[in-house]
Amino acid sequence: MRDDVAVRSGRSYRVASPPENARVTRELASELEYVLEKFALEAGFHERDRVSVGFKPGVFGHHRIGRAADIYTVGGIGLDEWKARWDHARECARATCDPRASGAIAAAERQRNLGWRLYKAQQFHGRWAQPYGYPIQLFGPWTREEGPWKYISDRMLRAHRDHIHVAK
Ligand SMILES: [Zn+2]
Fold first, then answer.
1. What are the tens digits of pLDDT across the range 76-97?
2. Spatial contact of 70 and 163, defined as CB atoms under 8 Å apart
3. Most buried of 50, 101, 106, 137, CB within 10 angstroms?
4. What's the CA gap between 128 and 32, in Å, rounded?
5. What structural domains does the chain harbor?
6. How far apart are CA 13 and CA 1, in angstroms?
């Protein structure tokens, strides 16, 4: 039996899913807790107004040994919905012929889109696994646009359209 632990709530974020949805190694749990706290603080949450995150259990690869976790919701909204809002805002920004208005739309979306912010926080603050010959193990709806693995295949991208996967 491995001594896996559940990812715990922090001061500024709250795990809204059942503990068994993210039972992982201690190493991964503490990395995730560190990044989630950073993300929540940077997004303006605090002890009296915590942001919720929801996990679902995964089955393949690193998940089988407790070294991966999948985040499906943030702020009570699914990652697929956050990505749809992101794409919509980008289309609006592109459709306007006023460059200032376009920039303002893009900036507002970067502020309010918690899905995108969570992805960027994982990328910026997290130290994720990179098995020899494989890309860094951070995948999600934004991987092709934001990296770290911009060459992600259509199949892999589709598999991560509704959640963020990290492994350590
Ligand atoms: Zn996964």
1. 999 999 999 999 999 999 898 8
2. yes
3. 137
4. 10
5. 5-77+114-167 (3.30.1380)
6. 29
What is the distance in A from the centroid of ligand 1 to the CA of 106?
A: 29
CA separation for the pair 168, 135 (Å, rounded): 12
Is the four-CA dihedral 144, 69, 79, 99 of positive or negative sign?
negative
pLDDT at position 1? 56
Would you give the distance in Å from CA 162 to the centre of its chain?
10
Dihedral sign of CA atoms 161, 66, 73, 35 in order? negative
Q: How far apart are CA 5 and CA 92, in angstroms?
A: 43
Q: 145 C-alpha vs ligand 1 centroid, how far in Å?
A: 19
The number of residues in the chain equals: 168
Q: How remote is the CA of residue 22 from the centroid of ligand 1, in Å?
A: 11
**Ligand 1 centre and the CA of 43: distance in Å?**
24
> 54 CA to middle of ligand 1, Å?
13
| Cα 58 to ligand 1 centre (Å) | 5
Under DSSP, is residue 81 helix (H, G, I), strand (E, B) or coil?
Answer: helix
Q: Which of 166, 163, 159 is nearest to 80 (CA)?
A: 163
